[in-house]
């Protein structure tokens, strides 16, 4: 089947009590690792591309890699999504350039301005058959070059969500409930806890409406150790506990974003390979196990965290 929008996916995820995985892609091996796992697990998937990914790999290369995955995995629905679109122009370039879904992230702007920018993107996207994710509330961490310090992060205010969704016409809403981007999400020694009260209040005010969670990597300690044991230095890297993500997936959360975990799996695997084989220099030899570990990591997410295996 051709690339799809997330509309049907989210309807099924909402009523089925699971979430669709949204995985960031930056190169061929990442696209392959993710989609091979999804095809084998018969899981729907969202492949998402950030502004940084477009700058790194080039828009056309990424679109063509995803189109290749669509050909290779004909039985599963695949969405091509812009992650954290910073402005109307970037969203328009992706809408015109083959994406089926875009995020406009004006969450750092004042409420009225966020509405205005989002509304403009929605008008253009809907006229072209593309769906739009928007964001209310700000996550800590790094999104492209924008770094939000933990102290400046703010939870979504549930009392704002109905007005925001009705005035913008967005198709899904990313909310801030304590997740953050990157590999250092919580202070070591503290107990990571998402604000399910905020999520449930948003859910109550937007019945049937798909909610999105960003910053949802769990930072597998297996890969943090692999990195640290093989010349890396990532002390205190901590992610969102998987059981909390599973709980979120059972609620109105229909899309869960994961990028850092893929990076950890890839980097850990390559570091270990280099450490064990200092004589090797053929990129295929280290990219192959890295791709295989991304695939296994994604398979685990689909089965044990998102609950979307067999839902394609
Ligand atoms: O939300 C951020 C994603 O992990 C993308 O990261 O902007 O470094 O590509 P990036
Ligand atoms: P992580 O850094 O937790 O993987 O979050 C990814 C993300 O939210 C992409 O938009
Ligand atoms: Zn994000």
List the helices and strands and how they pair.
Layout: H1 7-16, E1 20-24, H2 28-41, E2 45-50, H3 51-57, H4 59-72, E3 78-85, H5 88-96, E4 101-104, H6 111-127, E5 131-136, E6 141-143, E7 146-148, H7 158-168, E8 172-175, H8 196-205, E9 211-213, H9 221-229, H10 242-250, E10 253-258, H11 260-276, H12 283-306
Parallel strand pairs: 1-2, 1-10, 2-3, 3-4, 4-5, 5-8, 8-9, 9-10
Antiparallel strand pairs: 6-7
Helix pairs in contact: 2-4, 2-12, 3-4, 5-6, 7-8, 9-11, 11-12
The protein binds glyceraldehyde-3-phosphate, 1,3-dihydroxyacetonephosphate and zinc ion.
The site of glyceraldehyde-3-phosphate has 10 residues, from helix 3 and strand 3.
Task: Walk me through this protein's architecture.
This protein has a single domain (7-306), classed as Aldolase class I (TIM Barrel), CATH 3.20.20. The termini are close together. Helix 2 (28-41) runs parallel beside helix 4 (59-72), helix 5 (88-96) runs parallel beside helix 6 (111-127) and helix 9 runs parallel beside helix 11. It has twelve helices and ten strands. The strands form two sheets. The chain has an eight-stranded parallel β-barrel, surrounded by ten helices. Strands 6-7 form a two-stranded antiparallel sheet. It has 312 residues and is of the alpha/beta class. 1,3-dihydroxyacetonephosphate (13P) binds next to strand 3, strand 10 and helix 11.
